[in-house]
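Re: the pair you flagged

First of the two:
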Amino acid sequence: MLQPKRVKHRKQFRLRGQAKGIAYKGNSMAYGDMALKAMTAGEITSRQIESARIAMVRTAKRGGKIWIRIFPDKVLTGKSGEMPMGKGKGAPDKWVCQVRPGTVLFEMGGVSEEIMREALRKAKYKMPCQCKIIEKNMVV
């Protein structure tokens, strides 16, 4: 699963308001012919990214090329379920990527259009935010 090799600080603030507004960076296609674009804000974990990648690879039968345009560089901490309040912040639990509406999550190319559409449709089900499939010549 994706995670940074090193980080400056082991624990970070949550910053829930950071995903407000629309994406200005990473909002256009750069590599493939079709892409999956986020329509709502959300936090995508490294497990969800890996799950979507595996679904796309299996649908394409290891053909074509897949570009992952997001990286989980923010750590979320967690405590066990029945811990009482207090006693500090929990241990690092999972890595997430905060996405804004308009961020391109995955791109795909090198296979037929119907295979790409099916692979991106399956990846869409793995995402916690609403997404839509876009094409290179589409104006969104």
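Second of the two:
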Amino acid sequence: MEGVGSEMDVHTTRFGTISVPPQDELLFPLGLIGLENCVRWAVLTDSDNPSLGWLQSIEHGHIALGVVSPRRFVPDYQLRIDRDDLRLLELTTVRDAEVVVIASRLEAELTLNLRAPLVINVEQRRGCQVVAKDAYSVRYPLTSQLVPLRRTA
């Protein structure tokens, strides 16, 4: 990682070297579950799959997580969480929040973690991972026809 106060070059294992302008950085002050030491992230688009994004750690180039909008695959997904969970985001209204979930490959199957989504205040560039009050699955299965993921690097 290079650059301070200007565009940063991040050396990643999945995408090669990427440049991240300061205004594109997302801060997750508490990190993510199991990745508490990863607080600075960048969101990248997937050129092969418009429904897939990548949350790339700025501090750890080997960590990139596939993320999708849960409603694209689970139209009735409703996130209910404690308001205290959103305090870190500095939201003026919950309408300013963007919700994404982590997509994972489990053997030959793709799954979504609907239980612990990421909530992002796009304006403030702050995010947090929350645990839904409803008993959603951490491994909600997707059929391969819905999200054809390909390794891009």
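The chain has one domain: 8-141.

-B.
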